[in-house]
Amino acid sequence: MLRVAGPLIALRVSVILIGLVDTLMAGRIGPGSIAAVGAVGAVAFLAIGFGMGVLLALEPVAGSAYGRGEMDRVRAARSAGRQLALGLGALCVVVTTAAPDLLLALGQPEELEGDYRAYATLYAWALVPALLYHADAALLTARARTGPLLAAALGINAVNIGANLWFSSGGWFLPALGIRGIALASLLAYAAGAALLWLVLRALPEHQGRGDAAAIAAARRDVLRIGLPVGAQITLEGGGFSVVTVLMGYFGSTVQGAHQVALTLIALPFMISLGMGGAASGLIAQAAGRGAWSEVRAWGWTAFGLAAIVASVSALLLFHFAPLLAGGFVRDSEVLVQTVALLHVAAFFQVSDALQATGFAVLRGLADTRVPLRFNVLAYYGLGLPLGAWAAFAWDVGPAALWWGLSGALLIVAGLLMARFRSLTHPTREEALSEAFGRAGGVPSA
User: Fold this and answer.
1) Mapped to the 3 state alphabet, what secondary structure does 173-226 carry?
2) Which tens digits make up the pLDDT trace of 232-259?
3) What is the 3 state secondary structure string of 329-359?
4) How far apart, in whole angstroms, are the C-alpha atoms of residue 172 and residue 201?
5) What pLDDT digit, counting tens, does each position of 359-408 carry?
């Protein structure tokens, strides 16, 4: 599990680093550029997060085919994944290009319109190779061959840093492009990553050829059937944190700044959980394709156990070293106090956050995505967010109540997902699961 998960963790972290480098480079240009990178990026995330969620369905679709030894279906899944990545990429281009108009309609400062448009026009096109990159990463995960993902993660960050320094500041016969250079650097970085993974897949025997049209159409239907709920889940979960960000604004800029810093600090342990879960998803799909249900249970509970261990360490670090960690980002004493308070709440929900991220992944490996989506909607929008907002404003508990609401939602979702996995993989259901995964067409409608 750790061998497969390590490069996946690096892949997830690399996405954070690209955003961090872009923000640092924008800071060298001016406050308007920082605002544009953050605001346009937030809108773009809603689109690309949905697209990435859909493409994660390639893990169970291709993984179960690997487990059954059906390489023609693996090739069909690859072709279907690239078709869907291009289609979803076109959607991302439309949404991100329209981001400036949306932001201005929501009351953002009109003086930032030029920066918004300059960044969005180029950055929108970076999302097409980004989705191709993530589609091929999902195929490699399904094969449990994640080593190339480490090279890709290092490569795209190297390209992004070098291109940012060159394009935004100018030099070597190129004028300073400013914020356009930051967007162009992202485009080149993701294009380089997509090209690298394309070459890796092309060298694998099972990816020689395209697969016939009927098999590609069937794989495309499977990916959409399984992946659309995953895309919706990622979008809704991100939307929940976006709602909290907006609500934090009612407590003033100090609290909102603390909220952003705290989110930045908890991003790394969450990416570790996502990497662990991704590894489990591919391994579980392969085992399910072979009908090896004892392996499915072993991979799933191993993933839950490792996630809990890593999250426990993260929780202890956040609780005991919150002032030190926050102090690396902020100097204002009031922001520091608020950030430490939020990090103490975050320490409490680290384990449940890791378990829910892992739970979504292990169930995705079993093609079970619709029921987990309902868990997500119920816990976040039916309980966590309303109760957190009620406590924060009606009971005057303060901004930490919003995070306590999220904490409760994460705990509920984690418990439901673990119970769901235990129920689905119970030995008494092995015959039905074997029939579902062994049927012609690939993966079941769990």
Assistant:
1) CECCCCHHHHHHHHHHHHHHHHHHHHHHHHCCHHHCCCCCHHHHHHHHHHHHHH
2) 998 888 878 778 877 887 887 688 778 8
3) CCCCHHHHHHHHHHHHHHHHHHHHHHHHHHH
4) 35
5) 999 999 999 999 999 999 999 999 999 999 999 998 888 889 999 999 99
